[in-house]
Design brief:
single chain, mainly alpha, five-stranded parallel beta sheet, 47 helices, flat
């Protein structure tokens, strides 16, 4: 198997620790500390590539020898011959003569030596050791033995001799070995056991790559970062085997977000190679296991396989054979399964349908005959029944499997079973269908499909239900379905007009039933849609929905009504909105409505943010996410992950934000939750300097939702503008934001005020770019764009909600950005006030930005470095803590131009007993000296220690006198030499 290309930036993906360890061994060998290391792992995991990369250094003589397995046997001394031939190809005539002097017997291995050929003697192994020792006297030598699992006993004896006789040569011995080719009784087992007792022998095991390392490998293969959706799918298909990943990548361009379902021919051939090496019975057993579809207990596998050409008495041996060849997982034979599950797909797809149906039928009979828990096996029984062509049994088992999945709160599995029931409904008689009717089944299927992000399937089921309902005879059923479809249309991010259209019909149908739960649901939906679209009457309709739902006695309708009213009254009455959302939570939990439980958490978070309780909002979002995820993956939960991540990003907990986003991204959520997660990830990536990754997140978000969707308008506006600005497209960023600002006639909205900050910031960036290019018209246009929006804002900005601290921060940022846009003379003062407001609000990112801008404006105005140093150092600390690389670079550049040191002072460590000049300094003088070492001026020292400039100057003079130095720089250098600061 060829070496796998998984290297990026000179390092193998995911192999840093192993590479460092091997490099250390090789360095030790180069200075007379010989050592042997065997690198183990499955085929394709990158063993040979790792060794090759470690040996790719200057001054090393690397001699390669490969063990050869031909016709079921290993060739004697093959790797040793390869090593000697490798050396002969490199050595000149003089070196050959000196190294081979007295070693004529080696002609037994190398007839090309031209010496008299004699029979192998007991001297052969010591002669090989002698020759390698002589070579190592001339060069640091690395001997590499590839494919040690195919080594013959003679070669193993040579290697044993070399390792046990290490004696200070400049020699390193590295070997690669596959795990899966070491069956019971393999001679390498005893050889390894013996070598482990020697002091100069080690082993390294290479595991499969994790998702992050697979992402790095794919980035190298495609020459650019790859979207996490594609990484996740490739990781799942290849199981992190680098070679299989490379084969999968061969069919891709790297721009895809979905991995094709077909298995590439090259991957198919690579997987089947080991299967073809099996005996006939073992191959058949593996085929039967593939039809089983999952790890199968050995007794069940034996019962099925024995009816399809496999002798039950040979079953354990067949399983062991398949394990030894790497086809099945190693370990116990009691529950066999494939080492690479994609091989099961390949084998199953290649099996003729009629033969597969017979094996499925056998599995079905055997499972039904066993006393296994029926519910747990129902999903398997449904599949076997379907593939065996037994429609009635398929329906019966799918029904049980759906009920079981519902109890386990496994919506993805439940959706599969419910969709199968819907597809089979017309093919089975009424007595098989059970008590459920077609409309109820379709509605249930739609609800579950919505939960797992399969919105198209959900809509199809709802449309089917509505087509079956007689609206005149069953108006309330029809109204309920229409409300469900309006909710689904929202989650599909359809236009609000389409959402309202279904709601209006539901209202007409429920008008004759003013006290019904269906009427309450329709009014709840109406109030929410009116609020989002800026139509009047939203609060009145939300209030009416709560009153009717309370009287109707429906927990579902009341939970929905409280949650929707919370959304409607949020801007005007956040405390009441919080109370409504808190009331909705236990009701939704009691009736089992996960969508209403999600909404209860969402509006609690929003209300807490509006009230300025942002830490509480993060905690509620995290608590809600944990509850929704507790039974298993739930796409609804990841919208709460987005809300928590947004809060963490704002308050400067960027590592926690990243830790939260990674599993959320890997979950590959769809629709609103998936887009929201992507937008949060885009903002974080931009601020940390990973712009190509941010672009991928933005593009994927735009695929998941309509770009006109109003539900996460602010997140889409901010994420898109940040990506465009980072790509150097300020005009496009400004246009992107302008199209998503508040709509004419809309009610005051805190999100719109936040967008105003971003809009003016982007206009200032555009003005600066035009100013740098000497484009006065461009500057005027950017200034006019900012002033037009600010002056024409439809309400008094930053007055919505009670969070006065955040309002003051946003006001200060807008004023500072306007000053930057216009290049006003008071920019520094405005940015100073913005920095103070950001600090009061607890937003370190914007505080650091404001400090940098303040220092930039002060430096441009010609102010002394002392006035900008503290600002830059504070901004720099924050940038480093956050991992905000672009800001860090900007601060470093400005500090360099302004001759400001960013070095932080460290306490001086003075040995009091030692008679050094530092021991004579007072505590205050030591503080001053530490600041001198950090590059501070007298003015900066005075400011930092809260003393006068005159006092600081006096301390410096005393330090120079006591240390006998002539300058500040000399005193700082002395302090560094004598062990301070920091010891």
């Amino acid at each position: 198997m060829r070496a796998v290309g998984v290297r990026l930036g000179g390092r193998l993906a995911g192999r840093d620790a192993e590479a460092d360890l091997l490099a250390q061994v090789v360095r030790g060998g180069g200075v007379g500390q010989p050592r042997a290391v065997v690198v183990r792992g499955e085929a394709g995991v990158g063993k040979t590539r790792l060794v090759r990369d470690v040996c790719d250094g200057p001054g090393l003589l690397v001699l390669w020898g490969s063990c050869v397995h031909f016709g079921g046997a290993s060739l004697p001394y093959a790797p040793i011959i390869g090593i000697l031939q490798d050396w002969l190809a490199e050595a000149d005539q003089a070196e050959r003569e000196q190294v081979l002097a007295g070693a004529d017997e080696l002609s037994t291995l190398l007839p090309t030596l031209g010496t008299t050929r004699v029979s192998a003697t007991v001297r052969l192994i010591p002669l090989i050791d002698l020759v390698l020792d002589r070579i190592a006297q001339r060069h640091p030598v690395v001997v590499v033995i590839d494919d040690l699992h195919w080594a013959d006993m003679s070669s193993l004896d040579v290697l044993s001799y070399l390792i046990t006789c290490f004696h200070g040569q400049r020699l390193t011995l590295l070997a690669t070995c596959r795990d899966e080719d070491l069956g019971d009784g393999h001679p390498l087992h005893s050889w390894l056991a013996d070598m482990r007792r020697t002091p100069a022998f080690d082993e390294i095991h290479l595991d499969r790559l994790g998702p992050d390392a697979t992402g790095v490998q794919l980035a190298h293969l495609f020459g650019r970062p790859v979207d996490i959706d594609l990484v996740t799918q490739v990781q799942a298909r290849s199981d992190g085997n680098p070679y299989l990943t490379e084969l999968l990548a061969g069919q891709l361009s790297g721009a895809e977000s979905i991995l094709p379902a077909t298995v590439p021919e090259a991957l198919r051939d690579a997987l089947l190679a080991a299967w073809h090496r099996l005996s006939g019975p073992a191959r058949q057993l593996v085929r039967v296991l593939a039809v089983g579809g999952r790890p199968t207990p050995l007794p069940l596998l034996a019962a099925v396989a024995s009816k399809h050409g496999v002798d039950a008495a040979t079953l354990s041996g067949c399983v062991s054979e398949a394990q030894q060849h790497g086809v099945l997982r190693s370990g116990s034979v009691d529950l066999p399964w494939f080492r690479h599950p994609v091989l099961a797909e390949v084998l199953y797809d290649a099996l003729p349908r009629d033969k597969a149906a017979l094996i499925h039928a056998t599995f079905l009979r055997e499972l039904e005959a066993r006393s296994v828990p029926v519910e747990a096996a129902a999903a398997d029984l449904a599949v076997h029944s379907q593939q065996a062509g037994r429609v009635g049994d398929t329906y019966r088992w799918s029904l049980k499997a759906a009920e079981y999945a519902a109890r386990l709160r496994a919506p993805a599995e439940q959706a599969i079973q419910l969709e199968r029931l819907c597809a089979l409904w017309d093919q089975v008689p009424p007595d098989v269908r059970g008590p459920v009717d077609r409309i109820t089944l379709a509605l249930q299927t739609s609800e579950v499909c919505l939960r797992v992000g399969r919105n198209d399937a959900a809509l199809e089921q709802l449309n089917t239900s509505l087509s079956l309902v007689d609206r005149e005879r069953d108006p309330l059923i029809a109204a309920n379905l229409l409300v469900e479809r309006s909710i689904l249309r929202w989650h599909r991010t359809e236009p609000i007009e389409a959402v309202l259209a279904d709601i209006y019909v539901a209202l007409d149908l429920t008008a004759p039933f003013p006290a019904s739960a269906e009427r309450a649901r329709a009014l709840s939906a109406l109030g929410s849609a009116e609020s989002w679209s800026g139509k009047p009457g939203a609060i009145a309709h939300a209030d009416e929905a709560v009153r009717i739902a309370g009287r109707a006695g429906s927990e579902r309708a009341l939970a929905e009504a409280f949650a929707e009213r919370s959304s409607v009254i949020l801007d005007e009455s956040p405390l009441l909105a919080l109370a409504d959302a808190q009331r909705a939570e236990p009701l939704a939990r009691s009736c089992g409505s996960m969508l209403d439980l999600l909404n209860a958490f969402v509006w609690q978070v929003n209300a807490l943010q509006t009230l300025g309780r942002r830490k509480d909002a993060i905690e509620i979002a995290l608590r809600g996410q944990a509850e929704l995820l507790a039974p298993g993956p739930d796409p609804f939960a990841y919208f709460l992950a987005f809300m928590a991540a947004d809060g963490l990003l704002e308050c400067g907990r960027w590592q926690a934000c990243d830790d939260l986003l990674r599993p959320a991204l890997a979950a590959r959520s769809h629709s609103i939750a998936g887009a929201a997660i992507r937008l949060a990830a885009a903002s974080l990536a931009v601020r940390q300097g990973r712009v190509p990754e941010a672009r991928q997140h933005l593009d994927r978000a735009r695929e998941l939702i309509s770009t006109t969707f109003i539900g996460i308008r602010a997140a889409l506006a901010i994420g898109g503008s940040e990506v465009l600005a980072a790509e150097g497209k300020p005009q496009e960023a400004l246009d992107w934001l302008r199209s998503r600002l508040t709509r004419p006639g809309a009610a005051p909205d805190e999100d719109d005020d936040t967008l105003l900050v971003h809009y003016v910031h982007t206009a200032a960036d555009l003005a600066l770019a035009a100013r740098d290019a000497g484009d006065s018209d461009g500057v005027a246009a950017a200034v006019a764009a900012a002033e037009e929006v600010v002056n024409g804002w439809p309400w008094e900005s930053f007055t919505t909600g009670p969070d006065r601290v955040f309002h003051l921060m946003n006001q200060a940022l807008v004023r500072a950005e306007l000053a930057r846009c216009r290049d006003d003379l008071d920019q520094a003062e405005r940015w100073q006030r913005a920095a103070e407001a950001c600090d009061a609000a607890g937003v370190p990112w914007y505080r650091a930005i404001s400090q940098w801008r303040c220092a930039e404006a002060a430096a441009a105005a010609g102010r002394r470095p002392v006035s900008v140093g503290a600002l830059l150092r504070s901004a720099y600390r924050t940038a480093v803590e956050l991992g905000a690389k672009p800001l860090q670079d900007e601060v470093e550049s400005l500090a360099l131009r302004s001759r400001v040191s960013l070095r932080e002072p460290e306490p001086l460590v003075v040995q009091e007993q030692a008679a050094t000049p530092l021991a004579t300094l007072t505590a205050r003088e030591r503080e001053v000296l530490a600041l001198l070492v950090a590059g501070r001026s007298n003015g900066e020292i005075a400011k930092e220690l809260v003393i006068s400039d005159k006092t600081a100057s006096a301390h410096v003079s005393n330090i120079l006198r006591k240390t006998g130095t002539a300058s500040r720089m000399a005193a700082a250098a002395l302090a560094t030499r004598l062990g301070g600061p920091g010891g």
